[in-house]
Amino acid sequence: MLKIKKNEKGFTLIELITVMALIAIVGTLILRLISFGGQQFHNISDAIGGRSEGNFALNFITTEIKRNDVSNAIALRTKSGNDILEIKSENEFSVSNNLYQYQWIYFKDNSVYHQFSDNSFEISFDLDDTSRTYSLTYDNKIKSLKFEEEPDGETYPDSIKVTVEYYINDSADFESNSILIPIKSDH
Known about the structure:
By secondary structure, the protein is α+β, with helices and mostly antiparallel strands. The protein has one domain. Helices cover 32% and strands 36% of the residues. The chain has two helices and eight strands; from the N terminus they run αββββαββββ. The strands form two sheets. It has a five-stranded antiparallel β-sheet, with helices on one face. Strands 6-7-8 form a three-stranded antiparallel β-sheet, covered by helices on one side. The chain starts with 12 loop residues before the first helix and ends in a 5-residue tail after the last strand.
């Protein structure tokens, strides 16, 4: 009689299929975890970007108002439905080797802009002038910028409330931040 020697080394087909199925399940879970982490990173980056732009705009506006705070140097204007903050400097200031006395800060196309001139608002201001205009925000995260004069005249006389709304994600969710800035005036 011949004895058939069984090779007991190796794996059966069922064992191989089971291991491959487990590897596929673990791989799928790992890919979902990586995808979820990437999405969370994107959401947090968007929120931080929006807050950064909003806070930068508020800080810039506050600094410019305080730097040029002399009697009746600050005015709120409106043109084509846009709120515009006008600041008339006591002394001329230089930007790119040009001297200016007036500056305007306004919102247009999801950005905050800063425009300069040596002439008054009525003569010089132009929403579409790009030669003397700089964008203060870079990522179009700003939803709106509003200026209100003396929102509570009894408590805070002669002040401007600046409110900026900024997007925190791609689905149009937004937050806002406000600051009340006292100004000098002759009244």
